[in-house]
Design goal:
The chain is 50% helix and 8% strand. The protein contains 23 helices and ten strands. The strands form two sheets. Strands 1, 2, 3, 8 and 9 form a five-stranded parallel sheet that branches. It has a five-stranded mixed sheet with strand order 4-5-7-6-10, with helices on both faces. α13 links the parallel β4 and β5. α2 crosses α10 and α20 runs parallel beside α23. The protein is globular.
């Protein structure tokens, strides 16, 4: 008869991230996803925590997201709006908007999950039906839609993107939804002002939750780079030995760039939240030995990655031994490094994380929450001799909820209620868990070797290896060579060098590479392709050298593949 721990520790980590959508040349936002997720997901997720003070978990904020949230807050404070869609919401007269602004509204305001964010609202659906009718007659017919149609469409788009908690707590949202149409400028300003209020409150709300001890705030290297690839392209061959790599053998100075992103993130966290982060969720959960060495050098206590990375690492560490049963190796931390210099590594339960990310949206909320708790109870019952079993459930805290009815409100409310009162499952944070292990002097398993990989398939295939992704790396490597030459010359002032470094950091984000490939829709690929090339062009401008003509041509066009697409991926292919 095996012994069983009296409690199962559960660490939920909600990862909050959007890439940098700002055009550094104009200051304009190229895409609106930061403020839309702010009024829907970041707001709702804080609400659920405030309503369930007994829940403990980790929220991971990528610094470049926080930078942009503060940018939006400044826009509302100053009255100088640099997001074109938000600026249009406050426009007094839609009969006077330009043809390009009309197109922006028409092309933007149906970009959501229609099953959960359009079809439930008859007035919004009616606007879509009118659009479809006119589009069948030809694009020119759409130019005849009235200013009132544009105003109503823009209002409904923002109403659909408001979080369920916002609708329950702000009467003006209910009133606007009940009104349904013929929205006036005054109506739009009410909505506009509420958006500003919600955005300004986000960082203070999470800081208050952290200060109370309810949540741990962790970080990611500042601009969300795929750090192992910046350090060494060949690290991808740990999981894909035959993969094609870019012609450049290595990203120039990649290790220093990763250290820059990490230190910048630590500084950002310290300034915003009053303390340095204990742990790091690397961008995309992508890890390698050299990356963990950098985390150790910067004295971080923990990091996390995907379950497939752990399985590959155990095979690499013990090639002569078969992989043990999953419950025997997954639900524990691992120590990487030597006795005096090391870091604790946690690995997400990919199956449970993917159930939240992809499957439970199809269930009734209470049933989904109950099923998750039942699976946790089963893990607890099978803990065996594990003295401190811990389950890590890690996923996006924003993208999943668009597919859930009511933005996942009932699922999260019921899940938190069940976990708050559960006798055998203890919600906690990575920092609290590691502190308790140290106090109880629990022996932690050492991981001799780490296989490079990410939370997606345990590989880097989402970011490197096909023609389009490798071409993007080639363009970035060429730009970095030019950057290094200029930065070593007296051409730029210190202020100009700082601007160039900031622009380079944005170019290094993993997100651009995520979207390249024929498994994504042409519309999504086009917007991110353009943003990446515009970032590179701006970098050359800041370096005061001509941009290569190749940046005028699209890198990728997307396609109609039946493979996974969008902002989320399953952990297993």
């Amino acid at each position: 008869m095996t012994s069983r721990s009296s409690e199962l520790d559960l660490v939920l980590l909600w990862h909050m991230h959007q890439p940098d959508y700002r055009d550094y040349n104009t200051g304009e936002f190229m895409l609106p996803w930061v403020y839309l997720h702010a009024i829907k997901d970041y707001t709702d997720m804080a609400h659920h925590l405030e309503k369930h003070p007994g829940i403990r978990l980790v929220v991971n904020f990528v610094p470049v997201l926080l930078d942009q949230l503060e940018d939006y807050a400044d826009q509302f404070s100053s009255g100088t709006l640099r997001d074109p869609l938000l600026r249009l919401l406050a426009t007094p007269d839609f009969d006077r908007v330009s043809p390009s602004e009309r197109l922006l509204i028409l092309n933007s305001c149906f970009l959501n999950n229609h099953d959960t964010m359009l079809k439930p609202y008859p007035c919004y659906q009616h606007l879509r039906d009118l659009y479809d009718h006119l589009q069948k007659m030809g694009d020119k017919e759409l130019m005849y839609v009235s200013g009132q149609y544009l105003a109503d469409l823009l209002v409904w788009y923002h109403l659909a993107w408001t979080g369920e908690s916002v609708r329950r707590e702000h009467e003006c949202i209910v009133n606007l939804m009940s009104q349904g149409k013929l929205f006036s400028h005054g109506d739009r300003i009410l909505l506009f002002n509420l958006i500003g209020e919600l955005i300004r409150d986000i960082i203070p709300r999470y800081r208050k939750l952290a200060e109370s001890g309810q949540i741990e705030l962790s970080t990611t290297p500042h601009y969300h780079p795929l750090a192992p690839l910046l350090i060494d392209f060949t690290s991808t061959r740990d999981s894909q030995p035959e993969v094609a790599l870019p012609a450049h053998p290595v990203y120039p100075g990649g290790k220093k760039r990763v250290a820059f992103h990490l230190q910048s993130a630590i500084n950002s966290h310290q300034a915003r939240f009053g303390s340095a982060p204990s742990g790091v969720w690397p961008a995309e959960g992508a890890v390698s030995g050299p990356l963990l060495d950098i985390l150790i050098e910067h004295e971080r206590q923990w990091c996390a990655s995907g379950e497939n990375v752990l399985a590959n690492s155990l095979r690499k560490s013990y090639p002569e031994q078969p992989l043990p049963a999953r419950n025997e190796y997954l639900y524990r931390p691992y120590r990487y490094g030597n006795e005096n210099s090391n870091i604790l590594c946690f690995f997400r339960d990919d199956r449970l994380s993917d159930m939240i990310g992809f499957e439970y949206a199809k269930w009734f909320g209470h049933d989904a929450a109950g099923n998750l708790v039942q699976q946790l109870e089963q893990i607890h019952n099978e803990a065996g001799n594990n003295p401190a079993p811990v389950v890590s459930v890690i996923l996006d805290g924003e993208n999943a909820w668009e597919t859930y009815p009511y933005n996942g409100y009932y699922f999260l409310n019921d899940l938190y209620s069940m976990l708050e009162n559960h006798p055998a499952i203890r919600t906690t944070t990575f920092h609290a868990y590691t502190t308790r292990l140290a106090e109880d002097k629990v022996e932690i398993t050492r991981l001799p070797a780490l296989a490079a990989g990410s939370w997606v398939y345990g590989s880097f295939s989402t970011w490197i290896g096909d023609h389009d992704k490798n071409l993007a790396w080639e363009l970035l490597c060429a730009a970095k060579h030019s950057y290094d030459l200029v930065m070593q010359s007296p051409r730029l002032t210190d202020e100009e060098k700082a601007a160039a470094e900031k622009q380079l950091a944005s170019c290094e984000s993993s997100d651009w590479f995520w979207w390249f490939g024929d498994y994504n829709s042409p519309h999504s690929v086009e917007s991110f392709d353009l943003a990446f090339r515009k970032n590179l062009t701006n970098l050359y401008r800041l370096l005061k050298i001509p941009a290569p003509i190749t940046l005028l041509e699209p890198i990728s066009r997307g396609g109609t593949s039946t493979g996974e697409s969008g902002a989320m991926r399953h952990a297993a292919s």
